[in-house]
Write a structure and sequence with these properties.
This protein has five domains: 152 residues, no CATH class; 187 residues, 3-Layer(aba) Sandwich (Rossmann fold); 97 residues, no CATH class; 157 residues, P-loop containing nucleotide triphosphate hydrolases (Rossmann fold, 3-Layer(aba) Sandwich), CATH 3.40.50.300; 67 residues, no CATH class. 46% of the residues lie in helices and 8% in strands. The chain is of the alpha/beta class. It has an eight-stranded mixed β-sheet with strand order 6-5-9-4-10-11-3-12, with helices on both faces. Strands 13-18-17-14-16-15 form a six-stranded parallel β-sheet, with helices on both faces. Strands 1-2 form a two-stranded antiparallel sheet. The protein is built from 36 helices and 18 strands.
Length: 848
């Protein structure tokens, strides 16, 4: 894993300046506001009133209801329902009538029916489906009922009161007829493909509300913050920074850079401490700069005085730089007004010895901040790290311990083995003893629920309902577990699945296990047959199995990145003639790149001469002797009148124009239509959610300029990126950028991507060569399913032992993370190196 503790590169600085999408910015601003109001919520679904920007009065609402909904509803309603509708119309409006001028104005809005996403139309369309199916005795009416019930919980503004009233009437009228058993039996079809998420409220997660409340009300506490991956915990510091200064500590630098990019996008004032040996090495982002010099000609910031940091809201640092960052922040703030937010503190703790262990111990021993957050999806439980808790409380008298544990289960991300079969406890436990171990472990670690396949869970629940004699308690039956629609959701169903397993009769388990495995059908099959062609089921990701990777990018996590990359090319069976043609173009471009690089180096030397020649008109006095910044060089390069410089620039432009852009036939690009016809000719592959890469000609030109192995350039033409420790920074940033915008079909990544990668992957492979602890495995599969929409997801294992590692408990003695945390998060046995570092940091702070 790349845990390089060094200063930011120019490419990294440039990357954090790229703004996030408008949708992401909306979420960030909600988190920002949420620290002061944890109940903040937003819903931007348009109602009729907000869409037309009209008054929200009873006469207008009645007119709109009669215009768009009255006749359609009356035509499908039964007599008693029509009477109820007429009663609602008279009660809700009273004696008020619509003004003539309003009628004229509203008549111009007659095209409203074309806007199907307006909330009232969604409600009434769902209601009409409910009524039609209910009157026809079609049990599917319950699905519409479930949808309506949940839609009505949303905070859409200014919804038509007549629509609300008639929907509430229908919900009350038919509530007694609901069959919970029927809803559970068909839950996968209507819960996982429902429109609810599209129209749902945007609001904080419960764990964010808890931590904001905790930080607001206590200045001395250790917060154990355990939440599933992909639920916003890495963005939580943005909210905390509204009331406290934040020191964000991260071992994996890309996590800190992702936070920085988000923070900068909403104008947060941040600083960086990467590779720092003293507070004097801290660098401020422009937003946080208080004192700086300005270019007199352009008006842009020329040089920042990094020693003045009283505007900093968040300082982002690596492990090595924590103490310098801490002393930097304490120079401008009271320590009680600072929160240390340590992201993934167990990184490096899966091994007995690591070069960062001494640094971690020094940081804990030298820490002066009385409020610390230890944040991880897999943080050891409170009773496992009592030594850490005791040590913190002995150091900070009267400090509190706040334990925040959250289990989000809104998505289903099935686990699939190498045979293409779904992996679930009831399918993986050969004995009742093993089954009980799995159940207890899953109940203690509810984050695993999101990896339970809902279809398989429902199938087992239905089997129990049909064979109630196989359980030892009536509590395991649906009738005892669900009181109504209010408590029915994927999480509650999966919890009930665990309850049924816990109450299975031990003597009957062997036959139950055999029955389900005899009937087990692969979720992923190849060419319609459950056979292997040229690799394990689901592993031929550039040929036979590509069509199973739907909706979004896939990540393949492996310790043998180059081997998998070569396999992808070999498997694609690209003809020798095509490879030769592409190879020749790449070779020609490589020669051009070499010439361009030589001229660019000479050009930079020439420009530096001009930049470092101070002129009174171009700079303020304070910045005359400053080293030239990259922005200065770029500006000077663009405006230079030097004949030699202009000639070199023209030559570079000519050479860049000579770059040859190789193209790859769609037959060799996974999931293009031609590719699907080639590899899936004998099966019917639905194309509605097929996902392929999107490589434009402008992207190809950039790819050809990269200084990477030729095979990696070919892979990018196929829509496949490679991310590993030691990859050229330019290439890595391009791959991440293309992954963010969902241009790539597949990313092959090393273990560096196990922590903190936030690209929207829909599928993931866990290679058999990965050496994983249980914690790292949970972190790895947490990379999948970060989309905010309903998609098909999957985690695909090449080794069954990884599935057992997830489902079965691990003894505390076999958890290296627990042992290392208790040993390293301790103020005892402070080394001489620790004392030296602390003294150096204190001295440097005084200088600030």
């Amino acid at each position: 894993m790349d845990l390089t503790q060094q200063k930011l590169s120019k490419i990294e600085w440039d990357a954090i300046e790229r703004p996030v999408s408008s949708g992401e910015k909306e979420i960030l601003n909600m988190i920002r506001a949420g620290c002061m109001d944890v109940n903040v919520r937003a819903n931007h679904t348009a109602s009729i009133s907000t869409h037309l920007k009209i008054e929200h009065t009873p006469p207008i609402e009645k007119y709109m209801f009669e215009l768009y909904f009255m006749d359609d509803l009356a035509n499908i309603m039964q007599p008693e329902e029509v009477l109820a509708l007429n009663k609602i119309m008279s009660e809700k409006c009273g004696a008020q009538t619509l003004k003539k001028i309003d009628k004229i104005r509203l008549a111009r809005a007659d095209t409203l029916k074309q806007t199907s996403d307006i909330f009232e139309f969604v409600l009434i369309t769902t209601l009409k489906t409910l009524l039609k199916k209910k009157h026809a005795n079609n049990m599917e009416w319950m699905f519409s009922f479930y949808t309506l019930h949940n839609l009505m919980q949303n905070g859409v503004k200014k919804v038509n009161r007549f629509v609300i009233a008639i929907v509430n009437y229908a919900l009350e009228r038919f509530n007694a007829d609901i069959s919970i058993s029927h809803l559970i039996t068909h839950a996968p079809s209507f819960m996982e493909k429902n429109i609810l998420i599209k129209y749902g409220d945007l609001q904080l997660y419960t764990h964010q509300k808890d931590i904001f409340n905790a930080v607001r009300h206590c200045n001395k506490q250790l917060i154990l913050y355990i939440t599933p991956t992909g639920t916003g915990k890495t963005l939580t510091p943005i909210g905390i920074s509204e009331i406290k200064k934040v020191i964000f500590v991260c071992a994996a630098r890309h996590v800190g850079l992702a936070l920085a990019k988000s923070a900068i996008s909403i104008g947060k004032k941040i600083a960086f401490a990467f590779g720092c040996s003293s507070p004097g090495d801290v660098k401020l982002h422009y937003f946080a700069a208080k004192e700086y010099t300005v270019n007199a000609r352009s008006g842009s910031i020329q040089k920042v005085d990094n020693s003045v940091g009283d505007k900093v809201e968040i300082i982002i640092c690596d492990i090595r730089s924590y103490l310098p960052a801490m002393h930097y922040m304490m120079a401008f703030n009271n320590k009680d007004d600072i929160v240390t937010y340590w992201d993934e503190p167990t990184i490096t703790m899966d091994v007995t010895q690591h070069e960062l262990h001494d640094t971690i111990k020094r940081n804990w021993s030298g820490n002066c901040i009385p409020t610390m957050v230890l944040s991880s999806a897999t943080l050891p439980k409170l009773d496992e790290i009592e030594a850490v808790v005791d040590d913190f409380q002995s150091k900070f008298a009267e400090s509190q311990i706040t334990n925040i544990v959250s289990h989000d289960c809104r998505k289903t991300i099935p686990l699939i083995n190498s045979l293409g079969n779904i992996a679930m406890p009831h399918l993986e436990a050969p004995t009742h003893e093993v089954l009980m171990q799995m159940v207890e472990h899953c109940e203690d670690n509810l984050t695993i629920l999101r990896y339970f396949d809902l279809t398989s869970a429902v199938a087992f629940i239905s089997y129990v309902e049909e064979n109630p004699s196989i359980v030892t308690s009536r509590k395991a039956l649906v009738g005892r577990a669900f009181s109504g629609v209010d408590v029915l959701n994927p999480k509650s169903i999966k919890l009930h699945y665990l309850k049924t397993l816990r109450h299975i009769d031990a003597d009957k388990w062997p036959q139950i296990f055999k029955t389900f495995n005899d009937q087990r059908l692969p979720r992923i099959s190849r060419r319609g047959r459950n056979v292997s062609l040229d690799g394990p089921m689901g592993a031929c990701i550039t040929t036979h199995d590509a069509h199973t990777l739907t909706d979004g990018p896939t990540i393949f996590m492996t310790s043998q990145v180059d081997k998998i990359a070569r396999f992808c090319i070999h498997q694609s069976k690209i003809p020798t003639s095509v490879m030769r043609e592409i190879g020749e173009k790449i070779s020609f471009n490589n020669s051009l790149n070499k010439k361009i690089s030589e001229i660019e180096d000479a050009l930079e030397v020439e420009i530096m001469k001009e930049v470092n020649t101070p002129t009174t008109s171009s700079m303020t006095t304070k910045s005359k002797n400053a080293k030239a910044s990259s922005k200065q060089v770029d500006n000077k390069m663009a405006k230079s009148q030097n004949k030699h410089v202009v000639e070199m620039q023209e030559k570079i432009s000519i050479l860049k124009g000579m770059v040859k852009t190789p193209t790859l036939n769609d037959v060799f690009v996974p999931n293009k239509l031609a590719h699907i016809k080639q590899w899936c000719a004998d099966i019917n592959v639905p194309t509605s959610n097929i996902f392929s890469s999107r490589i434009e000609e402008s992207d190809v030109i950039i790819i050809m300029r990269l200084n990477v192995d030729d095979s990696w350039k070919l892979l990018l033409l196929m829509g496949i990126g490679v991310v590993r420790n030691g990859s050229p920074a330019e290439y890595t940033e391009l791959v991440k950028k293309m992954a963010d915008s969902q241009q790539l079909y597949l990313i092959i990544a090393d273990s560096d991507q196990i922590y903190g990668t936030n690209q929207p992957y829909c599928h993931g492979f866990i290679s058999k060569d990965l050496m994983l602890t249980q914690e790292k495995l949970i972190q790895a599969i947490g990379r999948i399913g970060r989309n905010n929409i309903h998609c098909e997801y999957s985690v695909r294992f090449r080794d069954a032992s990884h599935i057992n590692l997830l489902f079965l408990p691990v003894n505390a003695a076999d958890k290296p993370e627990v042992a290392n945390m208790n040993a390293l998060f301790s103020t005892t046995a402070t080394t001489a190196t620790t004392a030296t570092t602390a003294t150096t940091a204190t001295t440097a702070t005084t200088a600030i």
